[in-house]
Specification:
Blueprint lengths: L12 H5 L10 H10 L3 E6 L5 E4 L1 H6 L12 H4 L3 H16 L3 E5 L12 E10 L2 E10 L1 H28 L4 H15 L4 E7 L5 E7 L8 E3 L4 H9 L3 E4 L5 H9 L4 E9 L2 E10 L8 H75 L5 H31 L9 E4 H14 L5 E6 L3 E4 L1 H18 L6 E7 L3 E9 L5 H5 L20 H11 L3 E7 L2 E9 L2
Parallel strand pairs: 13-15
Antiparallel strand pairs: 1-2, 1-5, 3-4, 4-5, 6-7, 6-11, 7-8, 9-10, 10-11, 12-14, 15-16, 16-18, 17-18
Length: 552
C-alpha cells in the first residue's frame, strides 16, 4: 500500500469525489448517470480497505447477481474464488505503485454455463486529500469468440488443404482417413470420430478408420442405425440426439455413452459409400450449421480418397485375376499328366500288394499266422487305394468347377471327430487330444466330415514336435461350429500358408506311402461344400488351423 493510502480522510468517498457546486462542467449527478449507462463494468474502490464504494449495473451483471448489493464489499467477497483474488492483486498493485494496471480476467461461469471474459483495468484517482481506485471491467467475450472462430476456420482450411495434398501425393488411404477423422473430431469438438463403409450388399456398415481404437464391433447392421440410413438416403448430414433416437439406435448410443452423434454421408459420383460418424458425450458443444458444413467437406474428401482407392484396387484386382488365370492355365496343362502319374503309381502299388497276397493264399493250405498278417496288409492296401482314388476323383471334380458331393443329415460333429480320432489312434496313424465346448450339432455329411477331421489330424501329426498328442479344440457357437487344431511351426508367411491348401503341396507329400499331397486340399473343399471355410493363423511358435462350419 502507498503511504497516502493509510491517511485518507474519513469523509465518505462519494463526497470526496463530488465536484463543487460552483465548478463548471458536468455535475456529479450527471457523472453518476453516465457511469450507470456505460456498458463496461465500473467501480470506485476505497484505496485503503479495497472496499467498493460505487458500482454500476454492468459491474453487478458481471458479478452474476443483479440483486447483490456490491457497495461495502471487497472484490473477493463479491467473487469468492480465484477470480476475486486476481482482482484484489490488481487493485493492490495500483494502490502500491500509483500506476495503472490491467489483466485478462475470467470470472466463474454463470448459471447458463457461458464463460465470459474481461479485460480488467485499475487506475488511481485523487479523492480529496487521499486517493481512490477506479476499476473498469471491459467485456471481451465476443471478441475472444471471434478470435477463436477465426482460428478454427484457419485450422479447418489447413486440414482440408492437407487432406487434398495427401490425396494428390498418393499417401496411403489408411493414413489419409486416419488424419481426417482425428483432426475432424478435434476441430468439431467431438469425443471420437470414425469412418464406416457399406458392404457390397448395402446391409452392413464396416468400420474402416477411427480416431481411437476402442475395440468392439467392426461391423454393424445398417438397420441398427436409422439415423445413418436416413443420412445415406437423403445424402445429407443428420444430428441424432439420444432422446430422439429409436430403440435400436439408442441402445448403440447408450453402449457408446453418447448424448448425440453427427452422421455425415460419404458420397461420390458412383453413389453412397458409407458415413463419417462423430460422437458427442455432452450437450454443451453440439455442432452448429457451420460445423455441419465443415463435416460435409471432410466427408467429401474422405469419399474422394475412397473412390480413388477403389479404382486402384479394381485395376490391381483385374491384373491379379489375369495373372491368376494365366497360372491356372499353365497348371491345367500339366494336370492330366500329373493326375495320371499319381493314380497309376498308387493303384499299381496297391494292386501289387493285393496280387501278392492272393498269390500267397493260393499256395498256402491253411490260414497260418503269416497268412493272417498278409491278409491284414492286403486290407490296409485296399483301404489306402480307395482313399487315394477318392481324393483324386475329388480333385478332378473341383478342377472342372463342381463341388465335392455331400449328403446332409443331422450329425454331431464332436461325435464324428472323436470316432475318426479313435480310429486313427487304433491304427497308429495319429494321436490327438480333443476338447469340446458347447453344442456341436449341425447338418452335414458324416462320412465327409470324418474325412475332413482325419486329413487335418494326419497333417498335424506329421509336423508335431515330440511325442505328445496333437491338440484340438471344438467350440459350438450360436450359428456355427469351429474346429481348431494346433500344429508346430510352418512359419508365418501368409502367402506360403495359403499355398498349404493347394493340391500336391510339398508339406503334404510326407513319407507316408501312397500319399500324393491332397489332404489339406480335400479339407478345404469339404468345408466349402458345407458352406464353411478353413483358415490358417500363425500364433507364435505354433500355427492354428481353423475350420468353421455353419449349423445349417
Amino acid at each position: 500500500m502507498p503511504e497516502d493510502a493509510t491517511t485518507l480522510p474519513s469523509r465518505p468517498l462519494e463526497e470526496q469525489l463530488e465536484a463543487p457546486r460552483s465548478a463548471p462542467g458536468i455535475s456529479a449527478a450527471l457523472s453518476g448517470l453516465l457511469l450507470e449507462l456505460t456498458p463496461s463494468g465500473v467501480a470506485l474502490v476505497d484505496a485503503y480497505g479495497l472496499v467498493v464504494r460505487f458500482a454500476n449495473d454492468a459491474l453487478r451483471a458481471a458479478a452474476g447477481d443483479q440483486e447483490l448489493d456490491l457497495v461495502g464489499r471487497t472484490v473477493e467477497e463479491i467473487w469468492p474464488s480465484e477470480a476475486g483474488l486476481e482482482l484484489r492483486a490488481l487493485l493492490e498493485a495500483t494502490a502500491k505503485t500509483g500506476e495503472p494496471s490491467r489483466c485478462e480476467w475470467l470470472p466463474d461461469r454463470g448459471g447458463g454455463g457461458l464463460q465470459r471474459s474481461f479485460t480488467a483495468h485499475a487506475r488511481s484517482l485523487p479523492a480529496g486529500s487521499g486517493r481512490a481506485l477506479l476499476l473498469v471491467l471491459w467485456e471481451t467475450t465476443e471478441m475472444q469468440g471471434a478470435r477463436r472462430q477465426a482460428e478454427r476456420s484457419r485450422e479447418r482450411a489447413e486440414l482440408i488443404a492437407s487432406v487434398a495434398a495427401d490425396l494428390n501425393g498418393g499417401v496411403d488411404l489408411g493414413a489419409v482417413l486416419g488424419t481426417a477423422v482425428r483432426r475432424a473430431a478435434e476441430l468439431l469438438g467431438a469425443e471420437d470420430a470414425s469412418v464406416w463403409l457399406l458392404d457390397a450388399a448395402g446391409k452392413e456398415l464396416c468400420r474402416t478408420a477411427e480416431r481411437e481404437a476402442h475395440g468392439g464391433r467392426d461391423a454393424l447392421p445398417l438397420r441398427y442405425l436409422p439415423g445413418a440410413q436416413e443420412a445415406l438416403r437423403d445424402r445429407a448430414a443428420r444430428l441424432v440426439r439420444r432422446e430422439q433416437a429409436t430403440a435400436l439406435e439408442r441402445a448403440w448410443i447408450d453402449m457408446r455413452r453418447l448424448s448425440a452423434a453427427l452422421v455425415v454421408p460419404l458420397v461420390d459420383q458412383a453413389g453412397t459409400m458409407g458415413v463419417l460418424y462423430l460422437e458427442y458425450q455432452g450437450t454443451r458443444f453440439l455442432p452448429e450449421p457451420s460445423d455441419v458444413a465443415f463435416a460435409e467437406v471432410i466427408a467429401g474428401q474422405c469419399a474422394l480418397a475412397l473412390g480413388r482407392a477403389r479404382v486402384f484396387e479394381a485395376e490391381r484386382a483385374a491384373r491379379a485375376r489375369a495373372e491368376q488365370a494365366e497360372r491356372e492355365a499353365r497348371w491345367a496343362e500339366g494336370l492330366q499328366e500329373r493326375v495320371a502319374a499319381v493314380v497309376g503309381h498308387d493303384l499299381r502299388t496297391s494292386l501289387e500288394a493285393v496280387a501278392l497276397g492272393v498269390s500267397l493264399l493260393e499256395r498256402s493250405s491253411g490260414a497260418t499266422f503269416a497268412e493272417r498278417a498278409t491278409l491284414d496288409r492286403m486290407a490296409s492296401s485296399v483301404a489306402q487305394m480307395e482313399r487315394v482314388i477318392a481324393d483324386v476323383l475329388d480333385v478332378a471334380r473341383t478342377r472342372v468347377g463342381s463341388a465335392i458331393p455331400v449328403e446332409r443329415a443331422p450329425v454331431r460333429l464332436d461325435e464324428v471327430a472323436r470316432a475318426a480320432i479313435d480310429e486313427m489312434a487304433a491304427a497308429g496313424v495319429a494321436r490327438v487330444a480333443l476338447t469340446v465346448e458347447g453344442d456341436c450339432a449341425l447338418s452335414g455329411d458324416a462320412s465327409r466330415l470324418a474325412q475332413l477331421v482325419s486329413n487335418l489330424c494326419r497333417h498335424v501329426h506329421r509336423h508335431r514336435v515330440g511325442g505328445a498328442p496333437a491338440r484340438a479344440r471344438m467350440v459350438g457357437g450360436p450359428d456355427e461350429v469351429m474346429l481348431e487344431v494346433e500344429v508346430d511351426g510352418l512359419g508365418a508367411d501368409p502367402a506360403a500358408l495359403a499355398q498349404l491348401f493347394e493340391p500336391f503341396h510339398e508339406s503334404e507329400r510326407g513319407t507316408l506311402r501312397g500319399d500324393p499331397g491332397l489332404g489339406l486340399f480335400i479339407v478345404r473343399e469339404i468345408a466349402r461344400a458345407h458352406g464353411g471355410a478353413v483358415r490358417v493363423i500363425p500364433a507364435g511358435a505354433v500355427t492354428l488351423f481353423q475350420v468353421v462350419l455353419p449349423r445349417r
